[in-house]
Design goal:
Helix content is about 35%, strand content about 25%. The protein has about 325 residues and is of the alpha/beta class. The strands form three sheets. The protein has an eight-stranded mixed β-sheet with strand order 4-1-9-10-11-12-13-14, sandwiched between helices. The protein has a four-stranded mixed β-sheet with strand order 3-2-7-8.
């Protein structure tokens, strides 16, 4: 079985746990703190590895004092990264994350750093598409990612099946290399990525920017806009998720799976995406996959980080 490739961004998170969110201009004592490897794609790669997948993260790495931290952490989870370009004279982005133990919320204050994003040329030079069974993109860097997606689209056309058995199946089942894309941030320009998606993860913030009232409404909006056969999945935090297939009039709402106690929501959306991809690549039905995504994301909210995720899922 070929591996899963996750393309996007990584950063360093300085995570601070406090009893409750601090008031402005006060001095507070945290109950715990840690350095964590973060970024949507980087987190999703970690979760996929924890779920037992062969997974590779692909994005630029900075040749700075945190480079070894990133490598050691990915090694500890079994995430491959050897194809990543390492850029000299760069600093990775960092975030201060304030986690409220009272509410379970996380507030992120990000400093971008000087690390430049992945280029189309770097992808073509370093990635052999024959080595992968699924490829997932974090929705960003659209000027370069669009060209990469065009290459993958041409690759899939070369291997397009004419078998009648695939007629009427969702697009991802008809592709040699299925593409999933997450659009999360309120950035209009990342919309150009969605037409390339076989599976589209539509984040709450992005969906609300497009006028969605809730996850079912979001699924309806994007099922009407995207190519027939595209799977549209709309996670909505504590309200669960909804999904549909473009060209079909059926929408399905899936309930959340909250833990007994909310500890930290940091990385929950990245966990959901990874768990759904894990399930789809194991031929689970779409609804079962989304339910699994909600279950794993709920388990993640009940723990700090990703280390004990499998145990949290079992409990």
């Amino acid at each position: 079985m070929h591996g899963i490739l996750i393309v996007g961004y990584n950063c360093a998170d300085w995570v601070q746990f406090l009893p409750k969110f601090p008031l402005e201009d006060t001095k507070e004592r945290c109950t715990n703190q840690s350095w964590e490897r973060g970024g949507n794609a980087s987190n999703s790669a970690t979760v996929l590895a924890e779920l037992g997948n062969e997974v590779e993260y692909f994005g630029t790495l900075a040749d700075d004092n945190l480079k070894q931290f990133f490598k050691d952490d990915m090694d500890s989870y079994g995430v491959k990264y050897t194809n990543c370009p390492v850029l000299k004279n760069s600093k990775v982005g960092t975030s201060v994350v304030i986690c409220s133990e009272e509410s379970g919320t996380r507030t992120i204050i990000h400093c971008k750093g000087t690390l430049t994003e992945l280029t189309h040329g770097q992808f073509k030079e370093r990635i052999n598409l024959d080595n992968y069974s699924w490829i997932h993109f974090e929705g960003r860097n659209e000027n370069q990612i669009t060209h990469i997606l065009q290459d993958i689209q041409e690759y899939n056309i070369k291997f397009a099946s004419e078998s009648d058995s695939l007629l009427g199946q969702p697009n991802y089942k008809q592709r040699k290399l299925p593409i999933s894309i997450e659009v999360e941030k309120r950035i209009e320009s990342i919309s150009v990525l969605l037409p390339f998606a076989d599976v589209a993860f539509i984040g709450k913030d992005y969906a609300m920017m497009k006028g969605a009232r809730d996850c079912l409404h979001a699924a309806q909006i994007f099922c009407q806009q995207l190519e027939k056969g595209t799977v549209v999945i709309c996670p909505w935090g504590e309200h669960g998720a909804a999904f549909g297939i473009a060209g079909s009039h059926q929408l399905t709402k899936v309930d959340p799976h909250p833990p007994v106690k909310i500890v930290s929501s940091l990385g929950a959306g990245d966990t959901f995406n990874a768990a759904v991809i894990h399930a789809l690549t194991r031929n689970m039905e779409i609804e079962e996959s989304v339910r699994f995504g909600c279950k794993v994301a709920g388990a993640k909210i009940g723990i700090c980080g990703f280390r004990n995720l499998l145990q949290a899922i079992e409990n």
